[in-house]
Design brief:
Blueprint: E1 5-8, H1 14-21, E2 25-28, H2 37-44, E3 49-52, H3 60-65, E4 71-74, H4 84-89, E5 93-95, H5 102-117, H6 120-128, E6 149-153, H7 157-170, E7 173-177, H8 184-190, E8 192-194, H9 197-203, E9 206-209, H10 223-228, E10 234-237, H11 246-255, E11 260-263, H12 274-278, E12 282-284, H13 293-313
Parallel strand pairs: 1-2, 1-3, 3-4, 4-5, 6-7, 6-9, 7-8, 9-10, 10-11, 11-12
Helix pairs in contact: 1-13, 5-7
The protein binds (2R)-2,3-dihydroxypropanoic acid.
(2R)-2,3-dihydroxypropanoic acid binds at residues 54, 76-78, 101, 290.
Length: 328
């Protein structure tokens, strides 16, 4: 039987490439070139499966040009780079990497919230510039985490992880808004109270965004929403660029209608809105919320395991659409 042909679309752990090579004919991109759509199509020609990341968009054009493709295994929990309607239409299976990154990402969301509230990068830059000449009572005063109201927009696994850290570790009052309300047991576990989006915006001292990106969630936080937040509030986005209107956020931070923001994801990343780069009251990180060594390895292994399960057992571990029995 001929081996399935797999494209690994970005650089990944060498041991994961080796594990794929035990089963498949593998073409990999260890030089980590970020391909244009035309280059991706060229590389995908004749490939049966692909290990993708958020930078490879699998859409109708790609699918039409690569009819042999049967599965795209994303090394990410988010899969807004997949056009799921088109993939299902073409009988292409999509998979993601949930669970393995929940705690690492929740840890990071919490860290970014703390760094933002306590002005850690702003004060570090001040120190590095050699401007620290004396202690002063009001130097880099921020806001407290303990006892504050933590607002969470999007209460999936990562949102619940952040809620539990806030409620149990820091005595925070947790409020959340989500498309659907959690069941009572999950609400009790998170000590979280369901509120309307309007209430969330008005009451949160620290608002963390953890919702998936879609056409519906595009600019969920724009000028109108920012205007409803407390002037002392902080906003953290570890979800996806595009959920926040970055231009409106930069304007709010500049006018200090909210106190500060912590951003790990950006509209049009790796480009960052130029105003955000000049503002002192924003902590910026380059989409690293899931980037602990063990977690990134677990994500890559899960993506690879999905490819193996698909071609060897006609099953996948973590599907995001339901075409698995339709091996072409
Ligand atoms: C995810 O898993 O969705 C992270 O954002 C990494 O892309």
């Amino acid at each position: 039987m001929t081996q399935a042909k797999i494209l690994v679309a970005r650089a990944v752990f060498p041991e994961v490439i080796a594990s794929l090579q035990a089963h498949f004919e593998v073409t990999s991109n260890q030089d980590d070139v970020v391909w244009t759509k035309a280059q991706l199509i060229e590389q995908l020609q004749g490939k049966d499966g692909a290990l993708t990341t958020g930078s490879e968009r699998i859409d109708a054009d790609v699918l039409a040009a690569c009819p042999q493709l049967k599965i795209a295994a994303n090394m990410a929990v988010g899969y807004n780079n997949f056009d799921l309607v088109a993939m299902s239409h073409h009988g292409v299976q999509g998979t993601n990497t949930p669970d393995v990154l929940t705690d690492t990402t929740a840890d990071f969301g919490f860290a970014l919230m703390m760094a933002t509230a306590r002005r850690m990068t702003e004060s570090e830059h001040f120190l590095r510039r050699g401007e620290w000449t004396k202690w002063r009572y009001d130097m880099f005063m921020g806001s407290d985490i303990h006892g504050a109201t933590l607002g969470i927009l999007g209460m999936g696994r990562i949102g619940q992880g952040i809620a539990q850290r806030g409620a149990h570790g820091f005595g925070m009052k947790v409020i959340y808004h989500n498309r659907s309300r959690l069941d009572p047991a999950a609400e009790a576990r998170c000590q979280a109270t369901y509120v309307s989006k309007e209430d969330l915006l008005k009451r949160a001292d620290h608002l963390v965004l953890v919702l998936p990106y879609s056409a519906e969630s595009h600019h969920s936080i724009g000028a109108a929403e920012l205007a409803q937040m407390k002037p002392t509030a902080t906003l953290v986005n570890i979800a996806r660029g595009g959920i926040v209107d970055d231009a409106a956020l930069a304007a709010a931070l500049k006018a200090r209608t909210i106190a500060a923001a912590g951003l790990d994801v950006f509209e049009g990343e790796p480009q960052v809105h130029p105003d955000l780069l000049t503002l002192p009251n924003v902590v910026l990180t380059p989409h690293i919320a899931s980037a602990s060594g063990p977690t990134r390895l677990a994500m890559a292994k899960l993506a690879a395991d999905n490819l193996v399960a698909f071609f060897k057992q006609n099953a996948v571990l973590t599907p995001v659409n339901s075409v698995v029995s339709a091996i072409k």
